[in-house]
Design brief:
Residues 1-29 form the signal peptide. One of its GO terms (molecular function) is UDP-2,3-diacylglucosamine hydrolase activity. The chain is an alpha/beta fold and 283 residues long. The protein has one domain (31-281): 4-Layer Sandwich (Purple Acid Phosphatase, chain A, domain 2). Helix content is 23%, strand content 22%. The strands form 2 sheets. The protein has a 6-stranded mixed sheet with strand order 1-12-2-3-4-5, with helices on one face. A 6-stranded mixed sheet has the order 6-7-8-9-11-10, with no helix packed on it. Strand 8, helix 6 and strand 9 (211-214) form a beta-alpha-beta unit.
């Protein structure tokens, strides 16, 4: 009896291993035509604050490259093709450019330079930009014309109308950066915030922000139904895991799964992605 039971348990374990492999293969498969990019995720965002001339303005957003982790050199062409396909008016980069085991960020930013937009490319730093990784990223940005925003606000113009783009410096250091630059802005202006972690929009008063874009969570890398994950990239658990969420004040934040991986080079039910946000004037 004992041996029969053990045989059945071993057989069941074998079936479970096969099932997990099959699920993993399906869950990490790319459903986009761009190698290395699991999907292109589109959001349509409506706001009465948006100037008329910015109706239809297209924002491309990519984050958490961790180059090279799972996101290797062979995936750079696919990323660039995906970003160019968005026909964006501006490209925003959300931080974490270099992998934990190193990576040529100059090569990464040279590739991103081929994604040309009318308003250029803007970036913030992530938590992995420390020491050498920080200095290498800054040097690569300067060489490729990327505008680094560190607790700064820039103006994007269309004719005589404009929107404001606010970039947050190290959102984990609230002692130094716990006052949002948006507090000095006008309520009637349309303000787009770029920040590495979505926690910042909950930790800090970000009044006058109309929409925030963030990364950092990787969608959990491994998740079930976009609600549960064993990894914890946020102090708020899975509240800001991925997708369109809102802080306690009702301010919307879009969180991307990003492109690379951290800790473990695996994704399960959390496809890598680039994001397109299309702004619309709310009538």
């Amino acid at each position: 009896m004992y041996f029969k039971m053990m045989k059945r348990l071993n057989l069941l374990a074998g079936y479970l291993v096969v099932l997990c492999v099959l699920l993993s293969s399906c869950a990490t498969a790319s459903f986009s035509k761009y190698k290395g990019v699991g999907r292109v995720k589109r959001y349509d965002f409506y706001s009465a604050q948006l100037p008329d001339s910015f109706d239809g303005f297209r924002v491309a957003f990519a984050s958490d490259f961790h180059y090279e982790s799972r996101f290797t050199a062979c995936r750079l062409p696919g990323m660039c093709q995906a970003l160019r396909s968005l026909d964006a008016d501006v490209l925003l980069l959300g931080g974490d450019y270099r992998g934990r085991n190193g990576g040529d960020v100059t090569q990464l930013f040279q590739a991103l330079k081929t994604v040309e937009t009318p308003c250029g490319t803007y970036a913030v730093m992530g938590n992995h930009e420390r020491g050498q990784a920080d200095s290498l990223a800054r040097k690569a940005m300067q060489a490729t014309g990327v505008h680094l925003l560190e607790h700064e606000v820039d103006t994007l113009w269309r004719g005589k109308e404009y929107i404001l783009l606010c970039g947050i410096r190290n959102p984990f250091d609230l002692k130094r950066n716990g006052v949002s630059p948006t507090l000095a802005l006008r309520e009637e202006d349309f303000v787009l915030m770029l920040v590495h972690t979505p926690d910042y929009v909950e930790d800090v008063n970000v009044s006058h922000t109309d929409l925030a874009l963030a990364g950092h969570t990787h969608g959990g890398q491994v998740s079930l139904f976009r609600r549960w994950t064993p990894a914890h990239f946020s102090k708020y658990g899975n509240r800001f895991l991925t997708g369109l969420k809102y802080n306690s004040a009702g301010i919307p934040v879009i969180i991307t799964n990003g492109l690379g991986t951290s800790r473990k080079d695996v994704r399960l039910f959390t496809p890598s992605e680039v994001v397109l946000v299309v702004l619309h004037k709310k009538k």
